[in-house]
Amino acid sequence: MGKVVLVTGVARQLGGRFVRRIQRDPRVDRVIAVDAVPPEHHIGGADFVQADIRQPAIARVLAEHSVDTVVHMDVTGTPLGSGSRTSVKETNVIGTMQLLGACQKSPTVKRLVVKSSTNVYGSAPRDPAVFTETTSPKSLPSGGFAKDTVEVEGYVRGFARRRPDVAVCVLRFANILGPSADSPLASYFSLPVLPTVFGYDPRLQFVHENDVIELLLLASDEPRRGTLNSGTFNIAGDGVLLLSQCARRLGRPTVPLLLPALSWAGTAVRTLGVTDFSPEQLRLLTHGRVVATHQMRETLGYHPKYTTAETFADFAHSRGPGLLPPEALAGAVDRIAALPVLAGGHPTQSAN
Predict the structure, then answer these.
(1) Looking at the DSSP assignment, which residues form a beta bridge with residue 196?
(2) CA distance linking residue 321 with residue 327, whole number of Å
(3) Can you tell me the distance from the alpha carbon of 209 to that of 215, in angstroms, rounded to the nearest whole number?
(4) What is the CA radius of gyration of the chain?
(5) d(CA 129, CA 291)
(6) How many other CB atoms are there within 10 angstroms of residue 97's CB atom?
(7) CB 291 within 8 A of CB 236
(8) Which of 157, 172, 182, 232 ranks highest by number of CB atoms within 10 Å?
């Protein structure tokens, strides 16, 4: 008998992709796909079970199918369909509590993989240049998805202490981007004009959705020789990008605003449902966040196929050209920088 894998959050594109991918693993016998609503996309030969993980019924699903591996992907910052922020928080926190309670009672569960986020570190002015897995945040997130992930990881650590026989892997993903990315940051980058915080140019990291799928697959299996896939790991592509570089590569102009004005504008666009300018996203767009990925490479044994820059390039290509063609914008920036006035010299007739 092969493995029986239960995956939560399959109604989202990323969850559906992972379900289709793990079915191709010859060591997997059955895949149980779980979500509160039926997925609109194809999930292959997986057995779909419509169940709300916030309800105790999830324990019956684990027992009926003798699940030995649980991949918890239903931890997210965006509502599905017409859902609200309240329902998202309940699914993230209460749903995780119910799922962990069911796993604790199940004698067949041997491995748990949790999709988390580098949001657990927050974004603050006195943050270290680079976060490691053991770095404590300078300022704990006070709300939103970041606070959800902190609570989720706290419950996961408690479960790991109570069930030391279960291999637990927590993957802290940086901002996930790609052609089918659905996140507040992806919505922000899709705006025709990008509002930014005046005086700040934050450093950002990205991880490609293809790497996310492969990492979840790696974590859900037995560790390869010389590696360990139990523990907590930062996940991000190599390198960083400044927000200004992202804007230029998208060909989208920026509008620097003072933070109070941007907060007000964020409230307005959030009310209109255009994008999510939550306080945590504003902090990210102000202070940025960079994490170390040594453990991902040395312990987990994974080397991302996409760098941060390549991930963003693939995302930008899928979104189409902006108001300003990137090549023309880059050329204009180079020409302006080369002017003698900016170079410290005197203006020439040709420059004028």
Answers:
(1) 256
(2) 11
(3) 10
(4) 22
(5) 8
(6) 17
(7) yes
(8) 172
Segment 146-199, tens digit of pLDDT: 899 999 999 999 999 999 999 999 999 999 999 988 888 998 998 888 999 999
CA-closest candidate to residue 115, choices 238, 10, 24: 10
Residue 148 and residue 151: Cα distance in Å, rounded?
5
Confidence band of 57 (pLDDT split at 50, 70, 90): very high
For the stretch 42-60, what's the b/e string if a residue is b when 16 or more beta carbons lie within 10 angstroms of its beta carbon? Answer: ebeebebbebbbbeeebbe
Compute the distance between CA of residue 93 and CA of residue 147 in angstroms, rounded to an integer: 10
Residue 164: its H or E element: none
Q: Which residues contact 314 (CB under 8 A, 6 or more apart)?
A: 177, 178, 179, 208, 306
Contact 315, 243 (CB under 8 A): no
Measured distance CA(279)–CA(285) in Å, rounded: 10
Task: With H, G, I as helix, E, B as strand and everything else as coil, classify residue 28.
Answer: strand
- The token pair at 336 is 């302006």
H-type helices in 66-143, by residue range? 85-89, 96-105
Which one, of 33, 19, 20, 23, lies nearest residue 3 by Cα?
23
For residues 240 and 213, give the distance between their C-alpha atoms in angstroms, rounded to a whole number: 21
On whether the CB atoms of residues 351 and 221 are closer than 8 A, the answer is no
Instruction: Write the pLDDT tens digit of every residue in 121-143.
Output: 999 999 999 999 999 887 777 77
CA gap 170, 150 in Å, rounded: 12
Closest CA to 72 of 20, 120, 116: 116
- The predicted model gives 60-66 an average pLDDT of 96
Token pair 């609200």 is found at 84
pLDDT in tens, 262-316: 766 666 555 545 456 678 888 999 999 999 999 999 999 999 999 999 999 999 9
The residue whose two tokens read 């108001």 is 323
* H or E segment to which residue 8 belongs: strand 3-8
**Residue 190 DSSP code:** T
Q: pTM of the entire structure?
A: 0.88
